[in-house]
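[Meeting: bench + compute handoff]

Bench side (C.D.) handed over the final construct sequence. Compute side (W.E.) agreed to return the predicted structure before the next meeting so the bench team could plan truncations. Sequence as handed over:
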Amino acid sequence: MSTATAKSTKGSISTRQIATVGICAAISFVLMFVKFPVAYLGFLELELSDVPAIIMTLIYGPVSGVFVELIKNILHLATTSTGMSGELSNFLVSLGYVVPLGLIVRFGKGKKKLLTGMAAGTLGLMFMGMVVNYFVTVPLYMTLFGREAVLGMVQATIPAVKNVGSLVILGITPFNLVKGIIISVVSYYLYKVLKDRI
């Protein structure tokens, strides 16, 4: 039985679990401001704020991971410049990773369900990223900064981008694939270290 399954079937939620989720949410919030110094397409930056949520998902189950993501984005509302739409987008895209991962690790069978869950989480992240960016994030950026300005930034890297659809497919989706792989690798090794200590 996995650590996540064992700890999530004890019955009631422990005070320790609540405290740990709160601490991880605070860490996740801080990590939102720690970005890699490379801005892909002129506006996409890689950060690892999903890692604490992934670890909570693996240890306590998907509900704990969802709460980490929710609290992180509620805290971020105090610094928002997107009228809450950025936080909503971040929350939904993050759920695309956390929920499939948590369900597979909790209910799946086999020794490779952790890796399977992370692969499914990466695919979920990519899918939710496509939906949210097409309908919410990219239109918001185009409203704030101008359609031609946003397309111009992206075309400097990917000339084939001509509209919102091609921007999402050719630009943002590959970025989310790389992000999914990176947060999976980081979370995997941190989980191996922390699973018996939390």
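W.E. noted at the follow-up: The beta strands are 35-40, 44-47. C.D. will use this when planning the next construct.
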